[in-house]
Amino acid sequence: MDDLEKAILFSFDESGAIDSMLKSQAVNFCQQIKETPSICRICIEKLSLCNIVQVQFWCLQTLSEVVRVKYTSMSSEERNLIRESVFSMVCCELVDGKSSMRVLESPAFIRNKLAQVLVTLIYFEYPLIWSSVFVDFLPQLNKGSMVIDMFCRVLNSLDDELISLDYPRTADELTVAARIKDAMRQQCVEQIVRAWYDIVSMYRSSDFEVCTGVLDCMRRYISWIDINLIANDAFIPLLFELILADGLPEQFRGAAVGCVLAVVSKRMDPQSKLNLLQTLQISRVFGLVSEDGESELVSKVAALLTGYAMEVLDCVKRLNAENANEASKKLLNEVLPSVFYVMQNCEVDTTFSIVQFLSGYVATMKSLSPLKEEQRLHAGQILEVILTQIRYDPMYRNNLDVLDKIGIEEEDRMVEYRKDLLVLLRSVGRVAPEVTQVFIRNSLANAVTFSADRNVEEVEAALTLLYALGESMSEEAMRTGAGHLSELVPMLLQTKLPCHSNRLVALVYLETVTRYMKFIQEHTQYIPAVLAAFLDERGIHHPNVHVSRRASYLFMRVVKLLKAKLVPFIENILQSLQDTIARFTSMNYASKELSGSEDGSHIFEAIGLLIGMEDVPPEKQSDYLSSLLTPLCQQVQTMLLDAKMLNPEESTAKFANIQQIIMAINALSKGFNERLVTSSRPAIGLMFKQ
C-alpha cells in the first residue's frame, strides 16, 4: 500500500482510531495530489490495480470533479485518456493492458460512481465530439450481466444527472438535456429499446436481477421516447406476461408494472391516449390487488390502477365526441371497483390524490339525471371510501380522550385532513342525495353494533358524516325533513351509543343534534329527546369537562332557536341544572383552569334566555329569577364579610369565586331584554339592580 492509498484510507476513517492530526494531514496530502497535472493518469492506474473500495471511490470522485471543473482547459490527449479508460472499464475491457474487472466487481456505489464519470463525459462530448458512445456500448452487452448492469447504471445516471425533471435544472442543463435526447432519438433509441427487449426475453428465466434492472431503467425513458417502440404487439404482451407470472420474484414483476404505468402516463392528445388505453386490456391485472395487501407487487399494481383511472377520467373530461366519451366512460366503469378497493385496502401512491380523483368523477355524474344504477353503486362506494378515510386510528383513542399532547396533535391533523373529504361528501350528497342519506343511516346503525374495541372510531366517523351532510342541506330541506332526514334525526336521538363516555363521540353527537335543530323546530314531539341528550350524562352531566362545557354552550344555542317552545319544560330543565349551577359558583370549580370562551357560564345565559321570555308568566318569572339571584347574592355578601379574616392565599380563591358569581349573573341577565326589565316588568329590573 503506497502513501496515497494510506492517506485515502486515513481521510475516510470514521472509527476514531486515527489520530485527528494524522487524519488532517492525510486530507491535505490527498488534496495536494488532486492538484498535480498527472492526477487523471494516477486515478486510472489505481482503478486498474487496487481493490480497496475507499481508494476506488476517491479516484472516481476525483475524475468526475476534474472532468466537470477542468474539461475546457484539458488537452486532447488527457481527454482521450479519460474517455478510453472509463469506457473500457464500463465495458469490462483491458485498461493499459490490465483488467478492469476490479471496479465492476466492487459494491453498487462504486459502479454508480463509475457511471457518473461516463455521464459527465457525455454531458460535454455527446453527440458533437463523441457521437458513437451509445452505438459502441450496445455490442458490448453480449459480454453478459456485468456489462448490462453497467449499461443500465449509465442510463440511470444520465437520467438522474441531466434528463429527469424531478430535480431542479439550470437553463444550461435543460439545453444540454434537449441536445442529448434529440441525438439519441435520431441515432440509437430504437437499438436501445431492441436491446432491452432482447435482454429481458433472454434472461427472464435465468437472471431476474438483470431483467429487473433493465425494466427499471426502461421505465425512466418511456416518457420521452417514441411510445410506439414500447406500446406494440411485442413489448406489451411481454410486460403483462411477466406481471402475471406467479413463479417470478415480486421485484421483477413490479418492475414490469412500473413500465406499463409509464406507458399509461405518457403525455399525448386525449384521442390517442384513449386508443392506447383500450389496447392495454388492463382488466388482466385487477385480481392482483386482492392478493396480499402488504406486498410490494400489490403496491405497484395499485399505483398502476390509480394512474390508469386518472388518465381515463382525463379522457372522459376532454373528449366531447359521443363515441369517444362513451368509450372512456366504459373503461372508467370497468376500473372503478378495483380503484375503490385499492383506496380502502392498499397503500396509495403519494402522487395519487384520492379526493382529487373522486371529486373529478363526481363532477362527471352531475350531467346524469337521474343517475343510472351503476353510478348509484359508485356513489355508495365513494361514500365507503370517505368513511374509511375519515376514521381515527384506534391507537390514539386514549390520547384523544384525555386530550394530551399527542391527542391534540392527532385531532388537529385529522381536522385538516378531513376538510377536503367532507367537501367531497357534500358533493356526493348533492348528486345522489338518497344514496348518501341511506348510506349514513346504515353506517350509524352498523357502527353501534361493532364490538367495544372498534365502535368508538366507527360511531364517531358515522356521526361526522351525518353532521357534514347537514352543512350541505338547504334550510327548507332541513325544516321539512326532506328525503330520509325525518328518519335520520329521530334515529340519532333514540340510538343509545355504548361509547358515549368517549370525548370525541360525545362532542360530535351534541354538535350533530344542534346542527339539525331546524328540523326539531318543526317537529316539536322530539323536544323531550333533545333536552334529555343535553341534560343527562351525554351532555352537561358528561364526566369529561371538555364535553360538559361544550354542551353548556350548545344548549344555549338550542334554547335561542327553540325559545317559546321550551316554556312547558322550564321547571324540569331548572331542576336538572341545579347541581351544575351550584358547581359553577363553588370554590372548587373556580380554581379550575377555564378554557377561553367555553368557561361554563353559557348555562346561565341559557337559563336567562329560558326564564327571560315574555311567554313566562310574571309571577313564575319572578320566582325563577329570585331562586337563582338570591343565593348568588348571599354567597357574595358572606364572602365579603369573611374577607378581612383570610390569609392572602384564601383571599385569592375567594376573589376568584366572587368573579365566577359575577360572570354567572352577567350571563343570566343576557336573556332579559331592556324593555322587559324597565317597562313591562320593572320588578325584574329591580331584582337585577339589587
UniProtKB/TrEMBL annotation:
SUPFAM superfamilies xref list: ARM repeat
GO annotation, cellular component aspect: cytoplasm; nuclear matrix; nuclear pore
Origin: domain of life: Eukaryota
A GO MF label: small GTPase binding
Keyword tRNA-binding attached: yes
Compartments reported by the entry: Cytoplasm; Nucleus
Example of a GO biological process term: tRNA re-export from nucleus
Primary location class: cytoplasm
Region forming the signal peptide: none
Domain Exportin-T C-terminal: 324-679
Keywords: Cytoplasm, Nucleus, RNA-binding, Transport, tRNA-binding
Domain Exportin-1/Importin-beta-like stretches: 107-259
Family according to the record: Belongs to the exportin family.
Function: tRNA nucleus export receptor which facilitates tRNA translocation across the nuclear pore complex.
The protein's name in its UniProt record: Exportin-T
